[in-house]
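Backbone geometry:
***
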Amino acid sequence: MGLGVIPAGLGIVLELVALFAVPWVTFSSGTLSVSFTFLDLLQQSDRVKFSSDLATSYVQWFGFLLTALTMAAVLPWTLGALRTKRSAFLLSSIRRKPLTHTNFWWYRTVFAGRATLMLLLHAGGVVLIFARNFSLLGLGPYLLVGGALLVVAGAAIGPRKGTEMPH
């Protein structure tokens, strides 16, 4: 385990909080204020008219899938589960370069790239959901994108280099 697990872990926690606990949509009319969480949007997705079918898909399943993929892709790396050639081969799907001290930069780049792709897909989902009115943005989308940024930073930092890793 190394320092990369701190921002990556915090980022994943923020993503989960964003999806399950905080308001995504907030609007006020006079003294009345209404907020909806991501789960509320999910429950109402058949009645809410989003800007596109892609926005509906993001709310119904893709947002959850991206967060699960983020956890599956980045946590083993930052927690240090990739230590030997065999574990690197099985957990990273990087076939051309073995995990060595020399190739460590390559693994950092690949995992940070994967996390960046997931960040961009989350940001795209937020843009699709709020394409008609960004003034309705609640705390949730900000936490989701901020969490994804932390995951990118954690993946780029990566785990510490183990002594058992070949040079």
